[in-house]
Specification:
Layout: H1 2-19, H2 22-28, E1 32-38, E2 40-56, E3 61-63, E4 68-73, E5 80-81, E6 86-90, H3 93-128, H4 134-167, E7 169-171, E8 176-181, E9 188-189, E10 194-199, E11 203-211, E12 223-227, E13 235-239, E14 242-243, E15 253-261, E16 271-288, E17 293-295, E18 298-305, E19 308-313, E20 315-320, E21 323-328, E22 335-337, E23 350-355, H5 358-361
Parallel strand pairs: 1-23
Antiparallel strand pairs: 1-22, 2-11, 2-16, 3-10, 4-6, 4-9, 5-8, 6-7, 8-10, 11-15, 12-13, 12-16, 14-15, 16-21, 17-18, 18-19, 20-21
Helix pairs in contact: 3-4
């Protein structure tokens, strides 16, 4: 009886030992159903997106450069204008009269200078003959110099008169659209009065706000892509032109500026969606994010070899569009568990139910 109890006890101990044996446990496990994907190599780009608005790159305010009364207005709000096009005209009568007055003064001075030149020649001859004193010649030459100086001043006044006549025609310095008109026929203007504001349409500027946390990775020259709802389907590629150094206290954001050529139909004041490329890794090995599992030892993936899961510790990098960059532990072409990976341990048998491409796995 005692011998039988010893044999029974030994049998129970052997059974318990086998039940806790790792080899026995693995063999006794049923296979885990998984989906399979393959690590691939791509040029990985990370883009940050923001909403902003379009502004005119140039929007000059046109002012009167001379005073006078408006006699004609050629354009109105909304009209498109070309550079050099006349917008309005100021009465130029007084300026033409001023020009005639200066012109007559020039004619008078020309006659006086000619007469004085002859006088100087006569005195020069008489001095050589010792018929007059040198002081008489000096006085004549001084008078000639004074007349010549007056002539220089008169010619400058004539140029100024011509400029004033030109300034009576208010012209647009740029091509664009009239956004404001502040003048009507009959208005009397002083020099400096604002008459029009012209907004350029050919070149625009996008203003985008990004969180302050991105300040260290945003730089002038980074590629940018822009879209606007005013023209769905139109994509403009450009780059960061400038970064405003101050952080807005209202939203703790930094503002970046992107200059762009208007693709046609984009309007200042419209909303714009901008993407800026903040990172690019060529030939990066990527896997779907679902392949990477966090364990106490770190981040792991499960390679599938001979129908079993092989746990591999990995280091990761950039994340974008459902993909994660693997810096070590995985090679391009490695087959990895995706769906069901979280239930695996090292050596677990697997049953591959689905093989997914990189695009399907995202």
């Amino acid at each position: 009886m005692k011998k039988s109890l010893n044999i029974l006890s030994m049998g129970l101990m052997i059974s318990l030992f086998l039940s806790f044996s790792p080899t026995f446990a693995v063999e006794s496990l049923q296979s885990i159903p998984i989906s399979l994907t393959t690590a691939s190599t791509i040029n990985l780009e990370v883009w940050q997106i923001s909403q902003g608005k379009l502004m005119a790159k140039t929007s000059p305010k046109i002012a009167a450069e001379v005073g006078g009364r408006i006699v004609s207005v050629k354009v109105d709000v909304g009209h498109k204008v070309k550079a050099g096009q006349i917008l309005a005209e100021i009465d130029s009568t007084d300026f033409h009269l001023a020009k005639k007055l200066v012109s007559s003064d020039i004619v008078r001075l020309q006659a006086l200078i000619k007469a004085q030149q002859l006088q100087v020649k006569r005195f020069q001859k008489l001095v050589r003959q010792k018929s007059v004193n040198q002081s008489a010649l000096d006085d004549a030459e001084a008078q000639l110099g004074s007349l010549q100086a007056q002539m220089v001043g008169a010619k400058v006044r004539l140029q100024q008169a011509d400029r004033n006549i030109t300034k009576t025609r208010i012209v647009s310095p740029v091509g664009g659209r009239v956004n404001e008109r502040k003048v009507s026929v009959g208005d009397y203007l002083n020099e400096g009065t604002i008459l029009f504001q012209i907004t350029t349409l050919k070149t625009l500027q996008a203003q985008l706000s990004f969180p302050e946390a991105l300040a260290s990775i945003l730089h002038v020259g980074q590629p940018a892509r822009l879209t606007s709802p005013v023209m769905p389907g139109s994509l403009v590629e450009s780059q960061i032109t400038d970064i405003r150094p101050e952080i807005s206290p209202s939203n703790l954001a930094i503002q970046i500026l992107i200059d762009l050529d208007n693709p046609g139909g984009w309007e200042p004041g419209a909303s714009v969606t901008g993407e800026v490329r903040v990172a690019e890794h060529a030939n990066a090995i990527v896997v779907p994010e679902g392949c990477v599992i966090r364990r106490p030892s770190g981040q792991v993936v499960y390679k599938i070899e001979d129908g079993k899961a092989v746990e591999v510790l990995v280091a990761t990098g950039l994340r974008d569009n459902g993909n994660i960059e693997v810096l070590s532990g995985v090679q391009s072409g490695d087959q990895l568990a995706l769906d069901g990976a979280a239930y695996l341990t090292n050596g677990t048998p697997v049953n591959v139910k689905t093989v997914m491409t990189q695009g399907e796995a995202q």
